[in-house]
Amino acid sequence: MVIPPSLKTLVSQPQKPPLFLSLWTGITYLFLYLPIFVLIVLSFNNSPILSLPWRGMTGKWYSLAFSDRSLMESLANSLQVATAATLLATGFGLLTAWAIYRYQFLGRNALRIAVNLPILLPGVVTGVAMLAYFSSLDLPLSLLTVILGHGVFGLPVAMGSILARLTQFPVSLEEAAADLGAKPGRVFRDIILPYIRSAVISGALLAFTLSFDEVIVTIFLTGRDNTLPLEIWARLRTDITPEIAAAATLVLLGSSVFILLNQLVAKRDY
Amino acid sequence: MGIVTLENVSKIYPANQGHVYAVRDINLDIQAGEFYSLLGSSGSGKTTTLRLLGGFEIPEQGRILIADRDVTQQPPHQRNVHTVFQKYALFPHMSVMENIAYPLTVAGVIKEEIAQRVEEAIATFRLEGLTDRKPNQLSGGQQQRVALARALIDRPKVLLLDEPLSALDAKIREEVRQELRELQKRTQITFIYVTHDQEEAMALSDRIAVMHDGKVEQVGTPSEIYNQPASLFVAKFIGKANLLKGKVINSSTVDINGYLLDIQGSFRNQEHKLVSGNEVTVMIRPERLQINPRTLRDQEITGKIINCTYIGQTREYQVSTSMGVLNITKLSTGTDYAIDSTVEISWSTEDCVIL
Q1: Number of domains in chain A
Q2: In Å, how far is B135's CA from the nearest CA of chain A?
Q3: C-alpha–C-alpha distance, residues A226 and B224, integer Å
Q4: Is B215 in the same domain as B347?
Q5: Do the Cβ atoms of B83 and A177 come within 8 Å?
Q6: What pTM was estimated for this model as a whole?
């Protein structure tokens, strides 16, 4: 419909923010993203030290990073740990969420809070506690202990996402399926799982991301093998080269892909 | 014994202090092939009764029998009944076809047979061209037809319907009502229908159970419920009523504000109340009262018109008399009486119901 010009002034226009607020918002974004931007710039800077001024564009830090064996090894370790920890966290997260959603039992609310402790407590506490626990079990420190540790703090993340979705599940759908002859297992597979699928995936992606860049707990629990963040951190103390900036930029790229995936998955909900 | 029987069934919910009965000691006997309505306002226990039949709730007391089997403790998937839910509960991630096929899929029917039976259902419920759509791409009426098709595809013995028309626009509600009635007559499946809409219950049902406060007030055909209400509650709940309070003189006369009402031919479900000196309520439906009739009937009283509401097919008069204000419904095709005019009102003693 065409609005006559005389009416146009009456149609409410979206309000423009005042200049001060625009500036303030801009500064906030700068504060958040300038360091990351600088990191990306430095990873392409043709200068042997990790600082400005700009000395021209180069991709050599990236090829150096890719051919760096110990860096690549630590990347492989990180991917391995994150994958295993994610499976652990998502599997147990799903079961825990289901138990809390479906059943009334003694300590249900306590469990709901207690599960979150690993992410609420300082990493040092979790780290020390697990270290003490594993050594009392005579479990040698290795990537396995790191996986277990990451699994423990990935669990509340995965569970939180799944439980939030479950509480929105319309019970009438479950009743309808049972009513039409589906046994409980079948109801879960046909009706409930499709409903929470995106939450499961999104919880898993989040658990993966958390594990991938975890440092504190990892320090306590790893043996001789380094994960990527630990490797980067160790190197920063000795030689600060733009190769590290390149590696960090790659990690950033990987994480961004995961976050985008997460957004995409969330949009596919019904 | 009917196809569905409830024997002394009670369902108790925990409440703030102690517990409340959602339904209390109810007995129902529903015949095969009946269109049976549970009618009541919210909190009357009608939905709980339906959920007990579906197996979503287990009663604390009593027995439920469906097709001569005690199903009291049986989970929903073992019962030979299906439910059409209030908001249909179609599976949002499945297509129309998959939704309708679901009972057969779960039962492990072979693919060819599923395809054939779904196709028949699609034709019966006029869903051609919609088979690949998801439920959220359908109109309310279409969703309802899918829900019905899904619930009827494996021909259950009993179909439970939880206010299935309440989510529809008023306009198509009447149309769908007609279709439901025809569907039930054609399939001869027992329909148990929960509603708070008395008009809907009257139009659809072979029999109605009026529920109130977790109990069954009356079971009867629509005309029994309307013309011979068993209690004051039913009289008030169904349709409009003139409720006249008076004192019993003897078993054939009640004194209402000084007017001696002859109740000799009245319907007296509550005969025991007709003891001299007792307070009693006499009900007369508004359309039973006639204004200035050509031939006078058993009884009459003079009154003055104090209000008139025109609602198309009928006019509703309020007439002030010595008995009190009477509501009278009259076809609007007849004479129109002006406000303040004096009229004779007449009725026959059979029109009175003692409550």
Answers
A1: 2
A2: 11
A3: 85
A4: no
A5: no
A6: 0.80
